[in-house]
TrEMBL record:
Matching Pfam families: GAF_3 (PF13492), HATPase_c (PF02518), HisKA_3 (PF07730)
Family annotation (InterPro entries): GAF, GAF-like_dom_sf, HATPase_C_sf, HATPase_dom, Sensor_HK_TwoCompSys, Sig_transdc_His_kin_sub3_dim/P
Protein name: GAF domain-containing sensor histidine kinase
UniProt-listed SUPFAM superfamilies: ATPase domain of HSP90 chaperone/DNA topoisomerase II/histidine kinase, GAF domain-like
Amino acid sequence: MLALVAALTLTATGDPVQLGWIALLAVAAVPAFVARGHAVLAPLGRLGEVVVTCVAAGSVAAAAMAADRVGAGFGAEAVLPYLAVPLLTAALRRRPSESITLLGVAAAAMVVGGAVAEPGDPLRQPGYLAACGQWLVLGAIIAFAAETMRQLLQPPDPTPQPYAEATRLLTQLRSVARSLPGATLDPGGISEHLLEELRAVAPGHRAAVLSASGGGRLVVLAQTGAERVDWETTLDADSGIADAWATQQPQTASRSQARSHPGGDVSSLVVPLVAGVRTIGLVILETDAAGAYPSPVVQAVTEVTGPASLRLEAALLFDDVRSLATNEERQRLAREIHDGVAQELVMVGYGIDNAQATLPEGAEETAEELRALRAEVTRVITELRLSLFELRSEVDRNGGLAAAIAEYARTLGTSAGLRVHFTFDESTARLPAATEAELLRIAQEAITNARKHAGASNLWVTCTVDPPYAEIEVSDDGKGFADTRPDGRYGLTIMAERAERIRGRLKITPRHPSGTTVAVVLGTPPRRDSVRDSVSAPEGE
C-alpha cells in the first residue's frame, strides 16, 4: 500500500518533495508492524498512521492544485487509500472501539490537514470534501465488515469425532425415550396402537402395518383380522402396495392386497407412512364390501397416519441403533474371548501335554490326574468355541430365521452327539430384523441348555414363521428340570426377558415320556386349513 500511494502521490503532484509524507507514513507504521501484539505500541502506531495519512491528504491535494494536475482537491485521493490499512488491522484484531476512535481521529485530521495546507485552501474545495467523505464511509465499512472477513479466513472447525457425536445423539435419544408415553420405542407396539386408532375412523375386516426390510421386501409389524392374511410383501408386484410405496400417495382398489383371496366384493386402502421425504411403511385396510373407502374416509385415515409416521420412524431408527450396538458388542466379546481366554487355555493344554511327556516311570497316579485335567481343559475349550460360534451367529437377511436356527442346532448337535430333527414352516414374508435376532438368541439358549444340562439323545426343533406370528419350539428327551443348576435357571431368565422384549410368550413344559419343551410364541397363530411351505427334514439330518 505504501508503494501504491507513493506512485499515486508522485503522479498527482509531480513533486518529489511530497514523497516525504510517504516516508513519514512508513516510520509511523513501524510500531504496528514490528510490535503487532503489543497492547500499547501497536494501537499508537495505527493512530500515527491515521494522523499522518489524513494530514498528508490536505498537503497532497494542495500540491496537485498548484501543479495544475488534479483540481478541486481531488489530489487527496492519492494518499487516502492507505487509511484502509490501520482500520482493517484494528478490526481483524477484534478492536471495535479502536476502529471507532480511529475513524473519529481521521475525520479531525482531515479537517486539520485541509485547513493548514497552502496554497489553495483544500478545505474549501468540493473534490477534497468528496474524497474525504468517500474514504470515511469506506473506512467504516471496512471496520465493521472485517468480522465477517475474519470468520471466512478462519479455518473450519474440525469434524466431530464419530464416537463423540454418537454419544451425544444417543444421550439425547435416551432422554427423549424416557419422556415418551409408556417410555416405549417398540415398532410392533406403535403399529398395534395405530391399527386401534384406525378402527375408529375407517371400516375394515383386515388391517396391517408393514415396514421396509432387507432385499426390497416388506415385513409385517402388526395385523388384525379374524384370519391370517398372506399380504403381498414385494415392491415390484402389480399391486396397490407397490404403487403407494412408489408414489407416496394413498391408493384404493377393488381387489385384495393379499397373495390369495377367496373372491367376492373387496375394498382395499393402502396409505403410505411418510416421514419427511422417506417412505418408512404402509398401512393396509381391507373390508368385504364395495366402495368402502371414499375420499372423506381416506382423508380421515391420513390424518391419523400422519403423526404416527414420525413415531414409527423413531421406533425403527432406535431398533436399528440397538441392533447395531448389540451386534458390535457381540463381535467385540467374541474377539476378546478368542484372543484372550481361549488362547490362554490352549497354552495351559500344551503345558499339561508337556508335563505328561516328561513324567518319570511309575508315576501312574500323577499321569491319571494330568489326563483328567487335560480332558477338562479340552472340554472348556470346546465350550468356548461353541460360545464364539453363538456370539457370531446372525440371521442372514437372504437365508431367513429357520436357516440360522438350523445351522446352530446342527453344529451343536454334532458336537454333543445329538440327533437333531427339524420341522420348518416359514412364510416368504419376514419378521423385523430385531425380532428375528431375539428369536434366534432364545432358540440358541434353549438348544444350549438341552445340550449341556439335559443329557438328551434327541433334539426336536420346530420353526413356524408367518409374520407377525412366529413360534419356535425346542424339545429334548433328556432328564427335564431335575437339575437345578444356577446357570441353567439364569438362562431361562434371559430367555424370558428376550421374549418380553419382543412382546412374545415363553412356555416351558415337560415332554412325555421324558425331557422338556421350550417354546416362544409371538402373536396369535394363523387359522389355516393346510400348512404352507412346510419342510420336514429327514430324521437325524
